[in-house]
Amino acid sequence: AEMRNARTRRTKTVCTYCAVGCSFEVWTRDRHILKIEPTHGPANGISTCIKGKFAWGHINSSDRLTSPLLRDGDTFREISWEEALDVIEAKFKQVKQDHGPDALAFIASSKCTNEESFLMQKLARAVIGTNNIDNCARYCQNPATMGLQRTVGYGGDSGSIADIERAGLVLIVGANPAENHPVLCTRIKRSHKHRGQRLIVADLRKHEMAERADIFFRPNPSTDAVWMNGVARYILDHKLHKPEFIDQWVNNFDEYARSLEPYTLEYTEQITGVPAATLITVANEIAAADGTCILFAMGVTQHCGGSDTATSLSNLLLLTGNYMRPGAGAYPLRGHNNVQGASDLGSMPNVFSGYQKVDDPDVRARFEADWGVTLPTTTGKDNHQMIDAILEGTLKVLYIKGEDTITSDSNANYVASALAKLEFFIVQDINFSETCRYADLVLPAAASLEKDGTFTSTERRIQRIYKALEPLGESKPDWEIIQLIANRMGGNWNYKHPSEIMAEVARLTPLFAGVSYERLEGFNSLQWPVHADGTDSPLLFVEKFPFPDGKARFYPVEYIPPSEETSAIFDLHLNNGRLLEHFEQGSMTFRTAGIKEITPNGFVEVSPELATERGITSGRYVQIASPHGKVRVQVLVSDRVQGKQLYMSLNSVEEPVNKLTSSYTDRYTHTPAFKETAVSMTVLPEQ
Ligand code: SF4
User: Fold this and answer.
1) 142-332: in CATH 3.40.228.10
2) Does this UniProt record's set of keywords contain S-adenosyl-L-methionine (predicted)?
């Protein structure tokens, strides 16, 4: 027993399943995960959800990649790291020489650490010489960031998760936090039930928080910006806004007020389908509340008007004085564990770390001096543009780490046709994903429990993860792999530990100026901006907004109709989202036996009235088809959806919902309009 206890280790880490950022100790013996013990988490206290507590079986899955794999015809063969690096060096150099650095592109991962995101963009920019670098925030959060940067300057949660409990009113729009951000959501459930906090939910689907809400309403698909503008106009017309706050803190009021003129109650009801009486109640609730927090997610962002809806939401908060205080403000609920950090650290085509623009000569000069290179001057391609460039023949090489693009990006068949055309394609992951099938070279990465680093949660909280296990087989931490590749390409890097990477980040990034591993020791954490003296920012806007005059600004927006509307053939609207038990497309959770047993596959929710019309019951298989593809999926009849609206879980082992989604995007950020899909449903013969 003594020997057994001596082999038992307790290691602090942060959950890898969502951006709430729950931290805990993981108990391990050899490679066995004995238990997860949350004790001091700044975001979660002693709580976790089912994923954080139980979904770690993937660490020892037989699907783990344990050595580099090189394509050999239709199969792959194991090779050594030296051989893999030889292949990469030869291919990168040949394509760069023949076609220039912009013929190569890089996709970082929102699951990997901050340090790894920083190195991936440094590899692209400083070593290869291209700004073709992006991450999967492109698929979800960029419109939220755009809307907030336009109006209040920073794209991040206005306050801390704990502050949400202090709000008089929580308004949840296009988000399902009970399943996607469970531990954060527990705070709202508690405040609503025991402290009289008001709760309003706007969503197509009656999910758990909609069931609990004081007011739940269902706007027509893609019309959130309209009801927000309509509510804003009502507030203005009835002098329920906060003129003192606006005078002191917000520019551009007159133009904003003029832009709201078309949004009468009558027009708003006509477009959104929300009764005027409900709009008036919502306006009065916001105006009367002692602090309003608006929580939002993909139901807002994944539309062709996603950026404008996020902007409209922030305008409404400014109009009602709901910034610069705890228990008020915008909370874009980030999805992946480090989707905030991947963008913060510069894995984007237009900015270095801390959102410093690549086309700003002063910024570039600082990075050039520190890195000793000449950097590219123009914005690179984002994920969406990369796919088009591959098909056009101008992009030849793609290096993706920690992302299953073929199931995550919209219009999977179109994406597959592009990936098949690449001259050289590297996929780096912990498991052999669907995307690996298209790769020329597959690199085995270490899982989060097998490395050191930091993640940044939705509340801008930077936290340490510590290595609990040795990397499986020949797998390596992503930062080590990137460094090996950089050095083959002449990078001359010599990082011995991620703490040295973070020191470089702090040196070059005002937003992270005071971040260091000493200050992040154990359960300590910091919320950005972090000043050089180490003081951090639980509340994002205190003495000013980050614009030259310190003031926020109203940014008028208009209604943008959806990119794809229902028709005689494609007569149903398809919405999609995650399940509590699964993470994204399920690459990790479907490889965890207990989780898979509870929820073995995805499904499509069909309303009772549509099920009756089509003569189907739960369990029946149907074919869902769109102009872009088709899937076979099992039906769950549910009154969570209504009429001709379907809801499909995006977690699926066989048939990703993205075979159905289109290539239409948000017009400013190119985030796909995942939530604007028109489909048909055909009942399949009973088996
Ligand atoms: Fe992990 Fe999110 Fe669950 Fe917390 S709420 S345990 S971070 S999945």
Assistant:
1) yes
2) no
